[in-house]
C-alpha cells in the first residue's frame, strides 16, 4: 500500500457529501457549539493560499468539538452582492448574477476563461461545512429577509426611557394623547414641539414627515463620499488617498438624500457590550474609538447680525473663557448664511477644494493647516465679546455639531491654527486662561492647573470648573451638560444596481413600505448598469420598476400614475446589509417564512466562535452588533451580542519576485549585478522562478509583448537571479499561490497541516512553498506506522510504557493547543510523536487508533482512511476524543549522572522509589564504580534522590 492523497481525499469527500456527515441538527441532546467564518465575497480570482487560513483553523476547532460530543454548526455561504461584480458587468456586459454564479459554482466566463469556483475549491480542502445551510445574499430567498428587517427598522423608534427599540405605533399613541414634549427618544436635532391637539390636526403627510425624524431608518440629506467615476456613494473604508479603492476614481463630498440607519441610538449599548465578549483588546479598542464617547457640554453661541445659533459640543466647558475663535466644517449649513459678501469667493473656493478630500483623509492629516475666515462673528455667552467664525477642514460636519469653539491655549490643533493665521483679519490674539506658560505649545492637561482670567471660574481646576461652567450656561439657557458620541448614523443607500432593492415606493415623495407578505421585491433586469443620462441610479434604467398597490406587484415603469401605481426606490442597499444578520439565517436556512424560527434561534442562541480578518474591526462588526441588538429589542434575537468569542487570523504573505530593468531601456540586470546601476524593480510572476531564485528567461519573454525583445545581463554562470521580497499576497503582485496546485501535488491534508504549522494563528507569516515537502513527508511517515508496501502492519500487541507516554503527551498537548488556538505547536507535537513511535517501532492498535482520532481535526482525509483500514465502520468525525491519562507521563525511573569529585563519569537508570541507602548499595556494586575507585573507599557519598549521585574523596 502507498499513501495516495488524491485518491484517498476524493473518496472521503464523496463519503461526507453522500452521508451528510457534518449536517447539524436544530434539536439535539448534545450540547451545541456554533463556529462561524466571516462571510467571503466570491471573486472571479478565486482562493489563494492566504484565504483558507481562517477556514482551516475554524474547521480544526469544529472537528475537535464534534469529537468532544458537541452538536456543531459550521456553515458557509457567500456575501455575493457588491461593487466588484457590478463593475465587471459594466466592463463586459455580463449580468452580475451570471458572473457571481460562475464565481461560486465554477464554469467559464464570457472570454472562455475557466473559473474554478469557490465551492469546488472549498470542498477540495476538506472543510466540514454543513452545506445544507448555504446562503447567498444575492438570492431573492435570502434578501427577502434583509428587506423584512429593513421594514422592521422603519417601523421602529428608540425609546430612551426603556432603552430599546419599540414599534412606531407606541410613539404615535403618545403623540395622539400628549404630544411630544415628554418623549425621550433618539431623533433628529431639529424636532419641533407639538401638543396632542396639534398632532391630531396635522395631515397624514405632516405626521409622516414628523415620524421620519424618529424612525430607526429614515431619509435625510447627508454629506456623502460621491464617486462620479463609479456613479455611487462610497463608505470611508472604500477610499484610499482621496480616490476610490476600486478603479482609483476621484471622490468628492456632496449632499444627497439618502436612507440612513440610526445606529447612534445604540452607541452606549455597543460600548457597554464590549465588556461582555471575548474579543482581542485591540479590536475592542478600535470599536471604542469609533464609537468615541465623550462627556462635556453643549454650548450655544449667537451669531452677531443674524438670527442664527452655532451649537458646539465641548469636552472642556471649563475653558469657555479661553475661546479665541470658532471653526465650522466647510459643509456646515450655516456657512452660506453667515459668510459676508467680501469673503464669499474665498469661502466658496475653499469649500470646493475641501469637497475632494474624504473625511478619513481629513481626520488623518494633522500636519496640513488650512481655513478661511467667513467674515462673521459669534457672541461669547458670558463676556458678549465678538468671536470670529472660520471654516476649516479639520472640523467634520458629521462629528458632533460640525462646529468647534477654539481654545488655542488648551488644544494643540487650535494652537497651530491660531499661530498659522496670526495677524490676519479675523484671527485674534491667543488668550491664556491657565497659570502655565503657553509660549511654545498649548497646555492640554486636565490636571495640575488653576484657571485665570476666567471670571467666576478663577482659581478652579477641571472638575469644579466644568460643573460651574455648565451650571452657569444652563441658567443663561445657552448650554447644558451632554454625553456625545463620535459614532454617526450609517448611510444605507448606494447608487448601484447589484444590491438588495429597497421594499419602498413613494407617494408624494414620502416613503411607503411594501407589505412583508409581498416580499421579496426582486431586482429587475436592466439594459445597462450605469446611471441614467440624467444622473439617476442604474435602477432608473429599469423598464419594469413601479409598484401597483391594487395588484400588489411590480409593474411597468411607464404605468406610474401616482394614484394606484407609484415609483419604487431607485437606490439599493449597501454591501453590509446582507452580512449584518447572516449568522442567524444559517440557524434555519431552509425556512421560507421567516429568517429563522424562534425554536432555532433559541437553540443556537449566538455564535460561540467567530474567525475572520481584522479589516472588519469596525464596519461589519459594529453593524452586525447593531442589527443583533435591534432584533433582540424586537423579540427575535435571543442574545444581546451575536459573537461570544472572536479570533482574527493573521495574513499569509507572499514571496514576490522582481526583475531589475535599467532605466530607459529594455535591458534587465541580474540581482548580483545591479550595484551602481540605475534600475527599476518590476514584479514578475513567481511561477517563472525556481527554488534557486533563477528566472526562466524564455517564459518571461513570452509573458508580454513588451518583454519579447528584452536583453539580459546574467550572472557569470549564465543564470538570471531575481530579487525577493515578502509582501501581501495579491494577484497584482504576481505572487499568488493557489491551494488547488498544492492540493493536486501534495493533497489537502498536507495543505491544512502546513498552513497551521506556519506560525501562530493571529500573526502574519510569509508563505514558502519549499516547506510543503517536509509536511508531506511527515504524513507518509505517519502512514508507515499503519501499513507498508504489503498492507496493514497494525498489531494487537500490548503497548510499551514509552508508546503510551508518546501518545498521552500528544493527547494532552493537542487538546490544550486547540483550546488555546495554538495550532502550529500541535503540528510540531504530531511530528515529535510520529518520530518517537517510529523509533520505538510501535504498531500497536492501542496506540494507533487514538492517534488517528487526535490527528483527525488537522488531517481529516488520512485519518478517515486509517480509521477505515483499522476495521471501523462509518466516519471518524464523531468518535470520542481520547482521554488523557496523566499516569502515563509519571516517570518511574530516573537516569542519574554518577559523578566522582564533581565530574560526571557515567549514568545509571534507577527506579525513583529507591531510598538513599538502596541507591548507594547499587552504585557501589556497579563495575564502573569499582573501576573508578581503584580499590579506594570514598570519604563521602552524596545522594539526592531523583537528582544527583556524587562520590567524594
From TrEMBL:
Pfam families to which the protein is assigned, alphabetical: Anticodon_1, tRNA-synt_1, tRNA-synt_1_2
Subcellular location: Cytoplasm
InterPro entries: aa-tRNA-synth_I_CS, aa-tRNA-synth_Ia, Leu-tRNA-ligase, Leu_tRNA-synth_edit, M/V/L/I-tRNA-synth_anticd-bd, Rossmann-like_a/b/a_fold, tRNAsynth_Ia_anticodon-bd, Val/Leu/Ile-tRNA-synth_edit
Residues binding ATP: 731
Start and end residues of each Leucyl-tRNA synthetase editing domain: 288-473
The UniProt record lists the keyword Ligase: yes
EC numbers: 6.1.1.4
GO cellular component: cytosol
Reaction catalysed by this enzyme: tRNA(Leu) + L-leucine + ATP = L-leucyl-tRNA(Leu) + AMP + diphosphate
Short sequence motif named 'KMSKS' region, residue ranges: 728-732
Domain of life: Bacteria
Protein name: Leucine--tRNA ligase
Gene: leuS
